[in-house]
Amino acid sequence: MLRERQKYKVFSWLLFDFANTSFSVMMVTFVFPLYFKNVICKGEPSGDALWGFSVSLSMLLVALISPVLGAAADYSGKRKRFLLFFTLTSIVATALLSFSGPGMALVAVLLFVLANMGFEGGLVFYDSYLKQLASAKSIGRVSGYGFAMGYLGALSILLLVQPLLSKGIVLSNMPNVQLSFLVVAIFFALFAAPLFLVLRDEKKGDRPAISFTAIRCSLREVKYTVQHIMSYPDLARFLLAYFFYNDAILTVIAFSSIYAQNTLGFTTGELIRFFMLVQTTAIAGSLIFGFVTDKIGPKRTIVITLLIWFVVVVAAIFADSKELFFYTGMLAGMSMGSSQAASRSMMTRLTPQEHVTEFFGFYDGTFGKASAIAGPLVFGLVSAQAGSQKAALASLLLFFILGLLLMTRVRSVGSGSTRVT
């Protein structure tokens, strides 16, 4: 009976990944960025800058609040309430974006910032459940399952909205594109619900989720983390490595649709097929490398995937045809799911149990989100100065190299054993 209950808990956790990745692929990576530029901003060049500002602002805000809220969740034991709040924020804001249209740039920016904050902020609490759901021997496998389910969700939402986008992401097809955003919100809500029905928070008395005491304890915990992070040298080195290579990965993801359309002339239909292919290979990569992670450890797996990413970027730079870019996308999909799953496994191994949500706040928040600010900024500056998106893509190789070098200095050991006293 206990084993069956645990299976239900793990499945509900995996299903949440299936749900929220629909937001990521539709609202951050593919449809909404093009809709924002081509329809809301009417194709004006300022649309690129405004879009970049929206992404950076949402990431900056999450980076600032995640550690504090993560510590508050640890103190109160009400992790699920925080996850529910962020999830509902993302769902409601996404639904409201279905009413956005030409000339509503500021409203769209506000709603997107709220939606993306809800999505990214919720990941802090969602990822922290992994340590209580998986054993030390199965963390890599379960983490890989999660990302595989996420990419399956992304593939599912693309198939679901494909008829609505058949005429392109343009003004003449605006009602259908708007409806696709509402479909995303419903999809997210429907498949996220089981997690909140099945998982339970640990009991910590009657401590409120938010109170002066909770905030004071949260700030004290954050101060402790900042002051003593170097007491866990392997964790510190991993987080720094993650900052650099995740910076590059997130930038590739954020600019993939724009790069494909502007540099290689992809149509909307070709972009849909491209992202479906990427999600499919990402599922395979997450599953395969989930097992690989449990066999050889997350450190070696991350090193392998970073080498693959290096090949992906070089191939994309020299891609002179849509067919070659499709093959490059397949390789990127394989490394995308595997690198993220192995990174989450590595973080879980290096994180002490008593600070799991707080440290994941730094992992998903301070480091993860801050890297999403720096990467697009560098890409945009290089692209503007060089007048070439290929030159901007080449600049990301430096981030992968720095991440790889730092990663080789991390000892992959069990959680809590890396502390220096």
UniProtKB/TrEMBL annotation:
Residue ranges of every copy of the Major facilitator superfamily (MFS) profile domain listed in the record: 10-411
Subcellular localization(s) per the UniProt record: Endomembrane system
Keywords associated with the record: Membrane, Transmembrane, Transmembrane helix, Transport
Origin: domain of life: Bacteria
Membrane topology field: Multi-pass membrane protein
Transmembrane segments: 12-36, 48-70, 82-99, 105-126, 147-165, 177-199, 239-259, 271-292, 301-318, 324-342, 391-410
Main location (coarse class): membrane
CC per GO annotation: endomembrane system
Keyword Iron: no
GO MF annotation, one: transmembrane transporter activity
Protein's name in the database: Major facilitator superfamily MFS_1
